[in-house]
Amino acid sequence: MKRFKITMAVVASAALLLSGCGGDPAGPRSDFDPNAPVTLDLAFWGNDTRAGFYQSAIAKFNEKYPNITVNSTFLAFPEFWEKRQIEAAGRDLPDVMQFDYAYLRQYSQNRLLLDLKPYLGKYIKTDGFTESTLGIGVVNGVTTALPVGTNAWAMFTNTALLGKSGGTPYAGGTSWDEYATWMGSVTKAGGGAVWGGTDPTGRIQNFEITLRANGKNLFDDAGAPQFTKAELTAFWSGGAQVRGAGATIPTKRLLEVAPKSGFGAGLTASELTWDNFGAGYAGDLGADASGLALAAPPVTKAGAKDLYLKPSMLHAIAANSEHPEAAALLVDFLVNSQEAGEVFGTNRGLPASSTHLAGVKLDPLSQKILDYETSIKDRLGQAPPVPVVGYGSIEEKFRQLGEELGLGTVTVEQAVDQFFSELDTILKK
Amino acid sequence: MAGYGFLAPWLVGFFGLTLGPMAVSLYLSFTRYDIFNPPEWIGFGNFVRLFTDDPVFLRSAKVTLQYVLIGTPVKLAAALAVAMLLNSITRGSGFFRSAFYTPSLIGASVSVAIVWRAMFAGDGPVDGSLRTLGIELGGWVGDVDLAIPMMIILVVWQFGAPMVIFLAGLKQVPAELYEAAEVDGAGPVHRFWKVTVPMLSPVIFFNLLLETIHAFQVFGSAFIISNGSGAPGGQLNFITLYLYKRGFADLQMGYAAAIAWVVLVVVAIIALIMFRTARSWVYYAGDQR
């Protein structure tokens, strides 16, 4: 391991030196031959369901461009980013990547992503996008990514599971206390086989919406945290009460079914997450998606504008790609084409491009997501600033500490201290 | 001069791939370095943070030591016991030798880690069989107290490699020593402690040193079983895994390099202690003392 690390360090520094001499490519080549055989690497995060969708989409892409071979790989979200970081160090990123908003600033600022401007309009159609959706992929004036879709924070419930275990449906948009009480009742009815939900305090997004209910964000425009130790302590202490009452699934069970979530494994009746997770859940549960329903998350203050629409994911091209034109054609197909819309539905969020959306046959689940986003209109506020550099690590640290709180291996005070010390280090970086 | 010419390929490898990177890593351990921006010198900052402001590191060090200090002796004891059994049978020893050796060939693989995870999960075979015996543990994978024992069982299961070395050592012990001891009235226990162990002590020392260092390097199985997170409650967050996450997930390369150097120093100290104490318990036949 040690030797591996050292080797990596040398590879990284050598790559830095080499890339420093290279300079940036000056946009698309005029002699690009759209029929020349080319091989592209495509990386995305997701599960088997999404991998199946990508396979079908690539097959359709190849009907148009039989000369472009696409090798795709996928991983779960945290591992996906660990792998990208290593590749970024060696300037060896895959040609086309599914990209997350949380990492966009970091990768764009370090010039790891291709400036798409010369390709827009020529290889990538932009007619389907509104000005504001195109603006999502712009960092410091440079377009480095195109949004695939948008999503919002939501509550999924499994009505089929509730029906079987004798629980009542969740009303949506209640107070957090009422949600906890509801989870408790479902857990009780479930008799040890089904739980009401997962402790919501393990996810930073739930903390974020409680902050937003009070008119704050996690971070301000300058990247400074807008929350105090006292606020985080109060939030995590609230979680301890819910767990103490036995309303939520034990963390130990969650660890055993990982990488599936408790909800995906059919053990919990509700879960707070992004609203485009429905198709993934349907795949995990291996059941008809008709049992899945969406409800508004609990609200901290009645009338708060705590939710927001964010890009669920984007597509970017690596600056190190040797075939930027072909990569741009693939990105265009993935974000704009009706064919891709037919394949993916709302798996990657509600499509941002209107041509892409036109292809989406709204299956019952997609229709529910669309209806959900319409239903929360009054709760949608202004989106927070583009996430700070290192936000991915911050989110993961929050999740891990939530897990440890669930296991009882740290106290709330220790967890808060660890989180702030981590925050200091990351923001100083 | 011609000699150096012939040595050149090795020298290039040694300076370019071993010594050079080590020097760079030592330098990086005194910096803050995120891969994208040039390293920034912060003196002993990383080391101070490790020991005063990072409870996760201290816990990683603790669980790694637990794993090494319990896993290695148990593994060696199992290896020696089975080697002695195999040494005493004449028929089929070749088959058993291969059979016991196989786990150490595949034990570090990803597939075994996945199987291990499935076996020790809440509804897996291990838990199921224990339940029929009336022992209700409810899954090891997510259990804070059972995760390290699960890993120790995995490493002990791979006792084949030291076993083969022990077996070779046992074949070297002269039969006349046992005969002489037997004539003097020594029972099996006495023969083991007074003949086998002293005669085998160089092999025991070799295995102990190797397996201890090897145990510090545990990574793949812990990574797979905990889904890369070191869960439950950081019990599988062994020092190598923590180093990897700091370096490649958090991009704190300088900090990761500092961890690597702390591990190197700790392993070196342990090896030094072993070599020092070896003088008093390792017997080399033909040694003039």
TrEMBL record, chain A:
Signal peptide (from-to): 1-26
Alphabetized UniProt keyword annotations: Signal
Keyword Protease found: no
One Pfam assignment: SBP_bac_1
Domain of life: Bacteria
InterPro entries recorded: Bact_solute-bd_prot1, SBP
PROSITE patterns referenced in this protein's UniProt entry, alphabetically: PROKAR_LIPOPROTEIN
Descriptive protein name: Sugar ABC transporter substrate-binding protein
Organism in which the protein naturally occurs: Catellatospora coxensis
Automatic annotation (TrEMBL), chain B:
Natural source organism: Catellatospora coxensis
Domain of life: Bacteria
UniProt keyword annotations, A-Z: Cell membrane, Membrane, Transmembrane, Transmembrane helix, Transport
GO-annotated biological processes: transmembrane transport
Transmembrane segments: 7-30, 65-86, 98-119, 146-170, 255-275
ABC transmembrane type-1 domain boundaries: 61-274
Family the entry assigns: Belongs to the binding-protein-dependent transport system permease family.
Stored PANTHER family: ABC TRANSPORTER PERMEASE PROTEIN (PTHR30193), ABC TRANSPORTER PERMEASE PROTEIN YESP-RELATED (PTHR30193:SF1)
Major subcellular site: membrane
Cellular compartment(s): Cell membrane
Membrane topology: Multi-pass membrane protein
Protein name: Sugar ABC transporter permease
Cellular component terms per the entry's GO annotation: plasma membrane
